[in-house]
Specification:
- With about 210 residues, the protein is α/β, with parallel strands linked by helices.
- It folds into 2 domains: about 1-140, Response regulator (Rossmann fold); about 145-210, Winged helix-like DNA-binding domain superfamily/Winged helix DNA-binding domain (Arc Repressor Mutant, subunit A), CATH 1.10.10.10.
- About 55% of the residues lie in helices and about 15% in strands.
- The chain has 11 helices and 5 strands.
- A 5-stranded parallel beta sheet has the order 2-1-3-4-5, with helices on both faces.
- β3 (about 50-55), α3 and β4 (about 75-80) form a beta-alpha-beta unit.
- α4 (about 90-95) packs across α6 and α8 (about 155-165) crosses α11 (about 200-210).
- Keywords: DNA-binding, Phosphoprotein, Transcription, Transcription regulation.
- It holds the Pfam family Response_reg.
Length: about 210
């Protein structure tokens, strides 16, 4: 069962998301929060798999909450909820450790798919248009990864990282490299471990910063 916390200052948004998510047999919304402080407290108490986190909230905003959750080394994957795909806070959220971004007007099935894939961690995260553009913008910002970090990767792992940076799924990478999808998953997991990356979104950023993508 995927355990979810929803943090948004608008009760109608929270109830709408809860209705969409709890219609799925493998998802449970374990708590809600109306501001950043409450979101941090709930995440540290409940240790959910995924937090849906609004950025614009009264008091402590979503970015402050995300930073505190990351500092506490919580295992929760954080998906940022935005109203507009050019939200000025989203770039800061990526730096703070967000795993992806959802637009509030996305179809319900896309939100469910994003939650499931975020919960799986290393699997492909559903990437709405905003995510791809943000990765490109974030990757353009200094500094680039230490070359020594990439030297830890085998030639095959570098190739897998390059294809992750191009937005390819495990199945697409498997076809491109003529290897099995299970083998791709192993390579992805090793790339994340060796580079100390949280998930696939941040692997894509690393690929762009290193000039691989």
């Amino acid at each position: 069962m995927i355990r979810i916390v929803i943090a948004d200052d608008q009760p109608l948004v929270r109830s709408g998301l809860r209705m969409i998510l709890e219609a799925e047999p493998d998802i449970s919304v374990v708590a809600e929060a109306a501001d950043g402080d409450e979101a941090v407290a709930v995440v540290l108490a409940e240790r959910p798999d995924v937090l849906l986190l609004d950025v614009q909230m009264p008091g402590a905003d979503g970015i402050a909450a995300l930073q505190r959750i990351a500092a506490a080394d919580a295992p929760t994957r954080v998906l940022i909820l935005t109203t507009f795909d050019l939200d000025e806070y989203v770039h800061r959220a990526m730096r703070a450790g967000a795993s992806g971004f959802l637009l509030k007007d996305m179809p319900g099935e896309d939100i469910v798919a994003a939650v499931r894939q975020a919960a799986r961690g290393a699997d492909p995260l559903l990437a709405p248009s905003v995510t791809r553009r943000l990765i490109e913008r974030f990757a353009a910002a200094p500094p680039k990864p230490d070359t020594a970090e990439l030297d830890r990767l085998t030639a095959r792992e570098v190739e897998v990282l390059r294809l992750i940076g191009r937005g390819m799924s495990n199945a697409e990478i498997a076809r491109a490299l003529f290897i099995g999808e299970t083998t791709v998953k192993t390579h992805v997991a090793r790339v994340l471990m060796k580079l100390g990356l949280r998930d696939r979104v941040h692997a894509a950023i690393a690929a762009h910063r290193a000039g691989l993508a």
